[in-house]
């Protein structure tokens, strides 16, 4: 009797279908959270392919809730985004949103991939939905400014008109950022005042030296020493003035470098304050800028 050939097992697909998961050995199916954690660790290391494989393996675990399965799909979609596989990312995000319509991360990641694929209309729709759920999402606002500037500007104006109560965390963050911006601006002003004083002393020094230079070669000049005035030779006086001028020039150069550094820090502090204010949808005074 001719024996029938034993059927060869089907190769496991690298991307499991959420509705009908393929089975892995029981020891790997038992703990989907551990697989998810391994995927997260791989993602943090930049090992996106390995992370995607772990999320895929976790998706094969039976009896996952819809929200958990949506989270895994969204995470795997982010791996696809990083690898430039945007069609796969859109597919996973769509599946995740069907399971959990409140999964904002999946919506945002689908928007990113749709934009990358040239689906402007779909990307705008997703970005708007994310912004409706999270009004402080700065990346969405910037994306809408790129894709639909007029609509984004209208939405921004509407938010500015709308009064809302800030959360304690938002208030605290704004106060801290504003305090830092004010502190840096004050330091810049103090540095400028010191620079102005040094410049005044340099002008006086220049005038004094010019006058001393006009005196006779063998002249003796009065020099203020403590509470007394003593006569010193012209050459000695000029030498002292030159030394003081060199010291002032050195101080001025150092102060200019310090001022440049402070101005850069003040600009960064103002930028951080402005970004927080935009995210909170409020107007706030930025130090050094007119209202």
Automatic annotation (TrEMBL):
Gene Ontology molecular function, alphabetical: heat shock protein binding; unfolded protein binding
Matching Gene3D superfamilies: 1.10.287.370, Tetratricopeptide repeat domain (1.25.40.10)
Region (Disordered): 1-27
Keywords: Coiled coil, Cytoplasm, Repeat, TPR repeat
Location of the protein in the cell: Cytoplasm
One Gene Ontology term, aspect cellular component: cytosol
Coiled coil: 174-201
Chief place where the protein resides: cytoplasm
InterPro entries per the UniProt record, alphabetical: CiliaryAsmbly_MitoImport, PFD_beta-like, Prefoldin, TPR-like_helical_dom_sf, TPR_rpt
Pfam families from the UniProt entry: Prefoldin_2, TPR_16
PANTHER family with a match to the protein in the record: RNA (RNA) POLYMERASE II ASSOCIATED PROTEIN HOMOLOG (PTHR45984), SPAG1 AXONEMAL DYNEIN ASSEMBLY FACTOR (PTHR45984:SF1)
Membership in a protein family: Belongs to the prefoldin subunit beta family.
Name of the protein described by the UniProt record: Uncharacterized protein
Species of the source: Cafeteria roenbergensis
């Amino acid at each position: 009797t001719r024996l029938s050939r034993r059927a060869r097992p089907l190769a496991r697909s690298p991307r499991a279908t959420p509705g009908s998961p393929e089975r892995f050995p029981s020891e790997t199916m038992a703990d989907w959270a551990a697989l998810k954690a391994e995927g997260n660790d791989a993602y943090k290391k930049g090992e996106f392919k390995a992370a995607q494989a772990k999320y895929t393996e976790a998706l094969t675990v039976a009896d996952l809730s819809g929200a958990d399965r949506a989270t895994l799909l969204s995470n795997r979609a982010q791996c696809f985004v990083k690898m430039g596989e945007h069609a796969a990312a859109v597919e996973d995000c769509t599946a995740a949103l069907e399971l959990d319509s409140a999964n904002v991360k999946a919506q945002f990641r689908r928007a990113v991939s749709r934009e990358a694929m040239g689906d402007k209309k779909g990307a705008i729709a997703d970005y708007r939905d994310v912004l409706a759920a999270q009004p402080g999402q700065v990346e969405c606002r910037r994306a809408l400014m790129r894709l639909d500037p007029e609509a984004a500007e209208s939405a921004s104006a509407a938010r500015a008109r709308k009064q809302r109560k800030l959360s304690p965390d938002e208030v605290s963050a704004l106060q801290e950022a504003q305090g830092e911006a004010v502190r840096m601006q004050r330091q810049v002003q103090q540095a400028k005042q010191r620079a102005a004083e040094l410049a005044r002393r340099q002008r006086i020094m220049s005038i004094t030296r010019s006058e001393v230079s006009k005196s006779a070669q063998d002249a003796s000049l009065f020099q203020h020493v403590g509470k007394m005035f003593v006569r010193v030779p012209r050459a000695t006086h000029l030498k002292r003035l030159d030394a003081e001028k060199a010291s002032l020039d050195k101080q001025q150069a150092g102060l200019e470098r310090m001022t440049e550094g402070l101005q850069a820090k003040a600009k960064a502090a103002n930028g951080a304050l402005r970004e927080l204010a935009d995210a909170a949808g409020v107007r706030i005074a930025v130090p050094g800028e007119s209202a």
